[in-house]
Amino acid sequence: MRLEYPLILINFKSYREASGKKALELARTAQKVSRDTGLTIAVAPQLTDLHFVAANVEIPVFSQHVDDVSPGSYTGHVTLEAVKDAGAIGTMINHSERRVRADQVDVIVKRARELSLVTVVCTNTPEVTAAMAALGPDIVAIEPPELIGTGIPVSKAKPEVVTSSVELVRRINPAVKVLCGAGITTGEDVAAALRLGTVGVLLASGVVKAKDWEKAIRELVEPILKRA
Ligand SMILES: O=C(CO)COP(=O)(O)O
């Protein structure tokens, strides 16, 4: 599956609101808005829901994490092969709530490429973004941890973190796409993110915790539709 941009990636994290049957319900809601608007909306359900969700929607599905091990004798680990077999098109890695070492990111990015899986490497500062871009993932996602879950959007509260990240990635590895995330809730936040040079957003609570998922996602993509 080829990813089209702009991209909205909804991370379900470990939220109970989007777990089990609810995970599929939210993914189907995202799919509905994606179909109505023609925009790429991807989802990253909990690992336990990955296969269930991927088998029942056609939008891109990502794992939230993988370990740097090959299939075999590794109890409790998640391999790239397993998430591929579960139907994911790729994986997030190094989320601030699930950090891994840089050498592990390197291994995962290289192995994912061999398996044709898309990698979204999360970062916390422009400097770390630059370092991760050098490893050659498909996408880096800059997310200042202090804004995560606050509803204060990075694209408005810390635009310089986003623009510096975009600028450094352009210099170091222009093939790498940049997303931003943390506090993204409204369509205005998404429009601001695109204006700063990103290809989209990574978000969680603004959608997962919304009372009306469809309304929240529609509101989120509205400004992008106007741009098109
Ligand atoms: O960590 C995030 C997405 O991966 C951002 O979380 P929030 O959208 O809840 O701020």
Structure description:
There is one protein chain. This protein is an alpha/beta fold and 228 residues long. It has one domain (7-227): TIM Barrel (Alpha-Beta Barrel). It contains 10 helices and 8 strands. It has helices at 21-37, 50-54, 80-85, 102-114, 126-133, 154-157, 159-172, 187-195, 205-208, 213-227; strands spanning 7-11, 40-44, 62-63, 90-93, 118-123, 139-142, 177-181, 200-203. Strands 2-1-8-7-6-5-4-3 form an 8-stranded parallel β-sheet. α4 (102-114) links the parallel β4 (90-93) and β5 (118-123). α1 (21-37) packs parallel to α10. The longest helix is centred in the N-terminal third of the chain and has 17 residues, at 21-37. The radius of gyration is 16 Å and the shape is globular. The chain starts with 6 loop residues before the first strand and ends with a helix. The model has no long low-confidence stretch (mean pLDDT 97). The structure holds 1,3-dihydroxyacetonephosphate (13P).
Quick recap:
With 228 residues, the protein is of the alpha/beta class. It has a single domain (7-227), classed as Aldolase class I (TIM Barrel, Alpha-Beta Barrel).
Distinctive features:
228 residues, 8 strands, TIM Barrel, binds 1,3-dihydroxyacetonephosphate, single chain, alpha/beta
